[in-house]
From TrEMBL, chain A:
SUPFAM superfamilies: MetI-like. It is a multi-pass membrane protein. The chain crosses the membrane at residues 46-68, 88-121, 133-157, 187-206, 255-277, 302-321. Belongs to the binding-protein-dependent transport system permease family. CysTW subfamily. This is Phosphate transport system permease protein. Part of the binding-protein-dependent transport system for phosphate; probably responsible for the translocation of the substrate across the membrane. GO terms for molecular function: phosphate transmembrane transporter activity.
UniProtKB/TrEMBL annotation, chain B:
This is Phosphate transport system permease protein PstA. One of its GO terms (cellular component) is plasma membrane. Belongs to the binding-protein-dependent transport system permease family. CysTW subfamily. Gene3D superfamilies: MetI-like (1.10.3720.10). InterPro entries: MetI-like, MetI-like_sf, Phosphate_PstA, Phosphate_transprt_permease. It is found in: Cell membrane. GO terms for biological process: phosphate ion transmembrane transport. SUPFAM superfamilies: MetI-like (SSF161098). NCBIfam families: 3a0107s02c. It comes from the Bacteria. CDD domains: TM_PBP2 (cd06261). Residues 138-344 form the ABC transmembrane type-1 domain. The keyword Transferase does not apply.
Amino acid sequence: MDISPSTTAPPPPQDAQPKPISHKAAARGATRPGDRVFLGLSRGSGILLLLIMAAIAAFLTYRASIVLSKNEGNFLTTFEWDANAIPPYFGIAVLAFGTIVSSIIAMVIAVPIAVGIALFITHYAPRKLSGPIAYVVDLLAAVPSIVYGLWGALFLVPHLTGLFSWLDQFFGWTGVFEWQGGAPRSLLTVGILLAIMILPIITNVSREVFRQAPQMHQEAALALGATRWEVIRMSVLPFGRSGIISASMLGLGRALGETMAVATVLSPSFLINASILDPGGGTFAQNIASKFSEATEQGRDALIASGLVLFVITLLVNGAARAIIARRKEYSGANA
Amino acid sequence: MSHALNTQTPPPAPSTLRGARLPKWAPYVIAAGSVAAGCGIGLAGGLDSRIQWGLIASILFLLVTYLLAAKVEGGRQAKDRMATSVVWVAFLLAVIPLVSLIWETVARGIKVLDGYFLTHSMGVLADTDVGGGIYHALIGTLEQVGLATLMAVPVGLLTAIYLVEYGRGKLAKAVTFFVDVMTGIPSIVAGLFILSFWILILGQGYSGFAGAMALAILMMPVVVRSTEEMLKLVPNELREASLALGVPKWRTILKVVLPTSLGGITTGVMLAVARIAGETAPVLLLVWGNPLINTNPFDGPQASLPLYIYQQYANSAGSPAAYDRAWAAALTLIILIMLLNLVARGIARWKAPKTGR
């Protein structure tokens, strides 16, 4: 395949990529009006995207600052949400707690299972099955969150009483799994539902990484007499570790910002409870969705303030995940 | 392996190299046995949840496999079998909720999903009454998603073209980074942004258009990413050939690059549409919901399919009629999205760009 370009186009043999030339032509010699307009349009939309991001941060900060200056409570430590009152009294302590706890539960459940499924697809499933399974997992990533929410509220919740009473019976003494016997609409339920929801995305990303694991390493390990599990542990998992981490963080970003599934499943209460089976806590996104309809303008500003916190958290998590992926790209380039 | 040779010196040397192995049917027998035992223990212990039966069965399966393999085949093989079983169990564990989700939606949704349901709105019906439909919500969803697509696709396409065809330097790097970051914005934050600037600051009312703007923000990065991937697949020889003939760069992009990658771009756009069609949170904040038919997305609250599901669930105080409608709407939404997905993937397969190799 190397031959045809060199024989058909001998004049510029030193330029394997034509882009530098065309770029120069576009930038300096953009004499043609069509080119100038087109470059302007496409650069303009790139800039528009940046502007939108900046505007999101700016407008949220602006509206949040209006209400935060009036807030009587401490935004970070107050355990109440009385944002419609004059003066408003609210804080995000409970929301932060609920968001973090439910996401941690979701990650603890989802990451091992997702890695298992990814390994199943790439290394364990019969070859004929692995394609369709991967396809189905792809499709499941497209199921809207509200459907997960509906299923969670009407199917999962009634089926969790058994698990909850079992946990209470045997692990109630830890305090974390104490259960007063209310409807199982607690942070644990949310965590389980979120875990199911983020399974597909974690599976997809880690599957891609496992698939790229160097075939030579695996064959070398096999040739030395390693079992399949040893091959995976010695050559696939080390290669895929950063991929798993970034996949998990992408999943975490989704779990943190998930709104409707949490809003339908959780019965929120503005207190922090040591037990994850009893009502207690809410999440940022859920609080916004459920408090929104009765919020005054000031109440909305307060919700926007909590949304700003969520925005910043997800930015950090996603940014970190992308940074890890980008770093891995360099490594894998060296490996390939 | 060498000590296996030393300890087992008897004549058939090749077979001793492999050591003892469990027969091929062993895993199936163990699986059947542990499922039976799980059901038995569940019945005997009076456990009411089938999930617990399954858990008992899978733990039994793991234990028995490990112990048997450790006894017959040795530690390393036992670990290997353990890992295989764990991976299978992980897969089955994940399949259960996902299959159940689809099953429940289809089984419960099919009850009221018929022609009447698709062609009538809720009108003045109370949420607890039987009857009513999703016509207004379908119209709302189609209009909002359509408007969002109209806004997001040109911007997304042009940005991708900028990144692939022109992009060098700091601006392109910044755009790439923020497109990545934008992919992770929670939908509710996009909704809050439009709320703060369109409704609170500009003083506009709730409308389908406000929701469409938030949806467009969610859609743009997806379109940019997928289009970028597709444009990168277009072989450089095509660009060179066109430029060498003296065709201006913009016409090269419009007439050569874009048509070559059109199939892939269409797929990406349709997947993005499928993604935003199910978004509820921004619609809840910006479109507000409306039981009546409102065909004008620029004026007044509209309905939308995902929002309809949520409201039927949340505002009905447990009325079975409303739950039936919610399931039926969920089924409609899933069918819509799956159709979009299948068609998109069909186009991708059909028009897969030739990479020149």
